[in-house]
Amino acid sequence: MATTRRTFLRLLGGASGALAARLDVPPAFAQTGPVKIGVLAAKAGVTAPVGESGLRGTQFAVDRINAAGGILGRRIELVVEEESNPKDTVERFRKLGLQSRVDVITGVVSTGVGLAIGPVAEELKTLWLAWDATTQKGVEETMPKPRYSFRSVDNEAEAVMASILTAKHLKGKIKTVAGINNDYSYGRDNWAAFLAIMKKLEMGVTPVVDLWPKLGETNFTSHVAALGQARPDLIFCSFWSADAPILMKQAHAAGLTATTKFVMTTAGGVHESLKKAFTPEGMILGYNSMYFEAPNASPLLREFVRWHQERFKEWPNYESDHAYFTLAAYRAAVEKAARAAGGKWPSTDQIIEALEGIEVESLSGKRSYRADHVMECSFFQGLSTHRNKHDFVTIDPVEVMSTRQIQKPSGTGLYEWINSWKA
Amino acid sequence: MLAVQALTVDIRASRILDDVRLEVGERELVCLVGRNGAGKTTTLRTIMGYLRPVAGSITFRGRSLVGLRTHEIAALGVGFSPEESEIFGDLTVAENIEIATWTRTTARSAAERVERAWALFPELRAYAARGGTQLSGGERKMLSVARALALDPELLLLDEPFEGLSPAILPALSQSIAAITRLGHGVLLAESNIHHVPEHTSRLYVIERGEIIFAGKPQDAQRDATVLRIIGGTVS
Amino acid sequence: MLGGVFHAAVLFLAAAGLQLVFGVQKILNLACGSFYALGAYFGVSLVTWALGAGAPPSLFLGILILSGVLLAAIGPPVERLLRTIYDRDESFQLLLTFALVLMFEDVIRFFWGTAPHQLGSVYLIYGQLKVGALTIPVYNLVVIAAGATIAAAVGWLLTRTRFGRLVRAAAENPRMAEALGIDLPRLYSRVFTLGVALGTVGGALVIPATAAMNEMGIELIVEAFAVVVIGGLGSMRGAFAGALIVGVLKAVAIAIYPELEMLGIYVIVIAVLVLRPAGLFARAAA
User: Fold this and answer.
1) Residue A397: cis peptide before it, omega within 30 degrees of 0
2) Element (H or E) spanning B39, and its range?
3) A199-231 confidence digits (pLDDT tens)
4) A49 in contact with chain C, both atoms CB, cutoff 8 A
5) Going from the N-terminus, what domains does chain A have, and what CATH number goes with each?
6) Which of A416, B94, C12, C83 could crosslink C243 through cysteines, CB 3.0-4.6 Å?
7) Is the Cβ pair A43, C136 closer than 8 Å?
8) Is A54 exposed, middle or buried (0-12, 13-18, 19+ CB in 10 A)?
9) What mean pLDDT is predicted for residues C74-90?
């Protein structure tokens, strides 16, 4: 009955053998059971609504894929973690990769967080498909040639498009411009890109004032007063959160909207809050990469908008599409790579190869990943209008530009690229 | 009226009062005499509910005060004038006195109670509108006693009312305290200098190291050798 | 300039709540920012509901103030919780009130979600005032007037009423106040509730001009602290002067050299800390 030394040793050997065997298994994937997908979504702070929008797009994609039998017959199971500050989010990223052993991680909105995660994704060899998180500064330096990270579109694309539209609609009509942008890299980069393009396109405009409220500011009465004093012909603003409607409301109350043109590059992300009561018509308004009422909306977009409206009583914004695309692209890449590998579940490397250059139908239309792991998609902007059934503004006409047109190509710098434009 | 039985109090695990017994009857002036640190202030503060005894009882008009909150004890009719006067510098002299009439109603009207406080210390009246911080030490002492009196308490606890006062005003204050008992209030007065004990004191307790070592008439205390050895020569 | 005064009016209300509670209970209540944010959300909801139920839009100001006052009902239970740490170290107080901030953030998320809430179009109901080239929304003036009125009312309450005198007595010497029959727990509960009301009314009043966001609480705490450091902890007059200084300075900085907005405020904060560490008005309540 007693455990002899020999049996004990055997037990010990067996246990350590089993342990060793487990460690031998590459951190790859059981080829049965669900596909585990980690999601990092902001739940608190200014980015919370953006994270929420991404989660909605994710849920919609997962419901559809699972209803159609999953990926190669494996259902998707989501493991959602919170995106907060860079340090904690990196820890959660590690946890998803090492502990939850997810097959792929999507998400992340903040560039600061993204910059911290990039190197960790390489280190863990964990595939990460970012939703957003890609302003200019730092991304090139930190992730020069990422293998395991797939990036979103350059965040300046909306400023580039808005600047081109500014030239198209207002050339010769404006002489002075003012900027009000959040005091961090996104805001600074957008304003710089705008000024560079104004110069390149020979708009002949002079910047009269640039204001830098910090992200999360809710009172712009003093900024509006400063804008009123400077009396610019055009105000350029890259707000994307609740500060956009607040600024509009306070600018309108101070009579600015009557005399000054506005460019809001990204406020389409909070479009429902731009009430007609204080948002003028004729403002250049950007919806980023998805416009919920696109005139030639695909059946997929219509279905999503309907689903979103029924479920949340809200009209969706672009972050849902970023998130949807990452999952649709992952699924397509796995299936493509599996075909090449003779039907077996592909390795991470095979999936990465398949992702490079892949094109799939996303909510907003065709989207793809470039070979350098950057997204290609379309951007939607236009002039704001009150002629719609909502209490908020929409755009008409809707202008669509591909990132091939408004995003710097692989291997060049933003300003180098802008300066290379032919006039 | 007030009966303290076998009162034992510890502060931070060291015994400060041990088996203290004392009584104050209606209209009596009772003095608790002892050196600094003997336990006088602790006795008064325990009666006021600031400190909780480990053993013993405090009954006031048949009601136990142990476990009651300080403001409830005040509401029952126990007034307190602490050693450091502790008048409110942020309020005027008049407001300091009036406060007690807002927190406790008695058979006497508020106006009458305030008037009695003024009458006891007529010199305070001139400073009615002054801020509490502008008073001298003696004036603060008087205000502190007047304020406690405005509560219209049945029992008044006075902690060293004579300490630090110029000898010139001692007789006046002593008279005023005598007047308080004539107004119908009982007084328990803590004092470190036996020579300051007012003449009309009904009973005197001497406290030393937290224990009552003498209880009786003031005259007897003056003749008691132990008492004299401990507090006889002290001039504080 | 006027923009700065508008900001100052709101800042004053929140800072006054902080000051009152610190002056009396000696608690540095970080959650004052949460009351401000809650006031904003609750104000949006109540006005939206009232207008939906057919209330005339011009009444919205009254409804907002009412919503702030109603919401102050959370004061007594929160005070009951804080009572456990009155005698503890300041760091415990900061920890607990910061925990409250986080809890209230979740409360807001639970009831109102993560998306910002705003009141559509009541902001301009009272019209706009044209002064030369300047257009000023009348509502901004209403808020400034409300801030000044509440400042005067609180001042009157503290200096001229019985309640105010009891509060000042308790603030100066709580032990002695008890010996004079003041029921401290009840007084604390009332003072705290008044402090809450100042915050919630402030949050409700600002909402027509802005949008309710979860971060607005923390945002405000940062500025409110600059206000109390400049004005002097615990002083109402300090809150008033501090709010004006911060608000106007901010406006001037934005107009002249926007980069200096925050720097300017903190230069003053540091100057006050070095030259007059107790603040410009270093007296307990009043």
Assistant:
1) yes
2) none
3) 999 999 999 999 999 888 888 988 998 998 889
4) yes
5) 35-153+300-376 (3.40.50.2300), 157-288+378-419 (3.40.50.2300)
6) C12
7) no
8) buried
9) 89
Number of structural domains (chain C) is 1
Distance, CA of C2 to CA of C210 (rounded, Å)? 16
Contact A273 C219 (CB under 8 A): no
- Domain membership flag for residue C209: yes
Q: Mean pLDDT of all residues in chain A?
A: 89
Q: Does A217 touch chain C (CB under 8 A)?
A: yes
The interface predicted TM-score of the complex, written ipTM, equals: 0.89
Contact yes or no for C180 and B50 at CB 8 A: no
What is d(CA B43, CA B34) in angstroms, rounded to the nearest whole number? Answer: 11
Q: How far is A125 from A105, CA to CA, in rounded Å?
A: 11
The mean pLDDT value for C257-267 works out to: 81
User: Any contact of A with B, at least 3 CB pairs below 8 A?
Assistant: no
CATH number of the domain residue C55 falls in: 1.10.3470
In whole angstroms, give the CA distance from residue C252 to residue C258: 9
Residues of chain B with pLDDT under 50: 234-236
Which residue range forms the structural domain that includes residue C249? 2-275
What's the domain count of chain B? 1
Q: Tell me whether residues C171 and B91 touch, CB distance under 8 A.
A: no
pLDDT surpassing 70 at residue A409: yes
pLDDT digits (tens, 9 = 90+) for C191-217: 999 999 999 999 999 999 988 988 888
Give me the residue from A44, A219, A228 closest to C210, CB to CB. Answer: A219
From residue A86, how far is each of A40, A90, C15 by CA, in Å?
12, 6, 32
Domain annotation covers residue C281? no
Q: What is the dihedral of CA A157, A158, A161, A163, to 10 degrees?
A: -110
Q: Which of A155, A150, A210 is nearest to A354 (CA)?
A: A150
Give domain status of residue C286, yes or no. Answer: no
Query: Is residue C285 situated within a structural domain?
Result: no
- A48 Cβ under 8 Å from any chain C Cβ: yes
At residue B9, the 3 state secondary structure works out as strand
The pLDDT score that the predictor gives to residue A80 is 96
Query: Looking at this protein, which amino acid is placed at residue A16?
Result: S
d(CA A390, CA A395): 12
Question: What are the residues whose beta carbons fall under 8 Å from the beta carbon of C275, sequence distance 6 or more?
Answer: none
Question: Which positions ≥6 away from A243 have C-beta within 8 Å?
Answer: A182, A213, A215, A216, A217, A218, A220
Cβ of B71 within 8 Å of Cβ of C169? The answer is no
- Domain of residue B160: give its range: 2-232
C-alpha torsion angle, residues C83, C86, C89, C91 (rounded to 10): 60
SS3 assignment, position C272: helix
Which CATH number is B128's domain given? 3.40.50.300
Q: In the numeric block, which tokens belong to residue A40?
A: 């990092």
Angle, helices B137-150 vs B93-103, to 10°: value is: 20
By the CB < 8 Å criterion, does A184 face chain C? no
- Exposure of A372 by Cβ count < 10 A (0-12 exposed, 13-18 middle, 19+ buried)? middle
Could you report the per-residue pLDDT of C9-66, keeping only the tens digit for each? 999 998 999 999 998 988 888 999 999 999 999 999 999 999 989 888 888 999 999 9
Contacts of C3 in chain A (CB under 8 A): 221-225
Instruction: Please tell me the predicted confidence (pLDDT) of residue C58.
Output: 87
Say yes or no: C282 contacts chain B, CB-CB below 8 A.
no
Pick from B47, B69, B73, B90 the residue to mutate for testing the C interface (most C CBs within 10 Å): B90
C262 close to C269: Cβ distance less than 8 angstroms: no
Residue A221 to residue C250, Cβ atoms within 8 A: no
pLDDT of residue C85: 86
CA neighbor of A83 nearest in space, from A55, A42, A47:
A42
